[in-house]
């Protein structure tokens, strides 16, 4: 028997997960969007953020979270290939992390009943570098990114093997407090929780 966690990512501030693309001449980085122009968090991104949080908890031996749990749930990176080959254990990730999307009700409302309103989910955020000696903006340092307003997204973590793994993953979820670009400058503050 396997277990599943349904989770919510509730953002408290504007946030940006980049697509790697520019929108126009005046916006340097676009927010990642699905086929309907709605923001989402890729499962791959979430897995990496959760693995970092779990690894930090394991380093501190927090409530039974250890390296074996992290390796079992998230797998081993290529850099750990030697350790993987020398072990008899299978270290492919057990858990599957879905993409996190807006609630189905909100997504339908935005894409079917109010077509074009998806653009209201996004704003522009500009920053510039300041010369430390003069206190004046550095020439050609203005950068503008598209950010998403604070909203909630929902996803699942599937294929957890025990109730103990579920309890440990709940601890990992609440350990994540920020996500995305400029998270050390006020963007991407969040709460991740099991629902």
Automatic annotation (TrEMBL):
Q: Transmembrane stretches, by residue range? A: none
- List residues of the CRISPR type III-associated protein domain: 9-191
Keyword field contains Cell membrane: no
Domain of life here?
A: Bacteria
InterPro entries per UniProt: CRISPR_Csm3_endoribonuclease, RAMP_III_fam
Positions in coiled-coil regions: none
Its GO biological process annotations read:
defense response to virus
**The protein, known as:** Putative RAMP superfamily protein probably involved in DNA repair
Q: Which organism is it from?
A: Saprospira grandis DSM 2844
Lineage of origin: Bacteria, Pseudomonadati, Bacteroidota, Saprospiria, Saprospirales
């Amino acid at each position: 028997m396997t277990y599943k966690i349904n989770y919510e990512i509730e953002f408290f501030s504007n946030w940006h997960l980049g697509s790697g693309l520019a929108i126009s001449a005046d916006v340097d980085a676009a927010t990642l969007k699905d086929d309907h122009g709605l923001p989402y968090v890729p499962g791959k991104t979430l897995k990496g953020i959760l693995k970092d949080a779990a690894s930090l908890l394991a380093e501190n031996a927090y409530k039974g979270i250890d390296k074996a749990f992290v390796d079992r749930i998230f797998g081993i990176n290529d850099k750990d290939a030697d350790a993987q080959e020398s072990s008899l254990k299978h270290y492919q990730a057990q858990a599957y992390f879905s993409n996190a999307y807006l609630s189905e009700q909100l997504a339908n409302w935005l894409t079917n009943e109010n077509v074009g309103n998806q653009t209201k989910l996004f704003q522009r955020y500009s920053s510039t570098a300041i010369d430390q000696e003069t206190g004046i903006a550095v020439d050609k340092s203005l950068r503008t990114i598209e950010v998403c307003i604070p909203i909630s997204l929902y996803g699942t973590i599937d294929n957890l093997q025990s109730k103990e793994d579920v309890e440990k993953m709940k601890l990992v979820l609440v350990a994540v407090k920020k996500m995305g670009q400029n998270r050390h400058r006020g963007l991407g503050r969040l709460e991740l929780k099991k629902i």
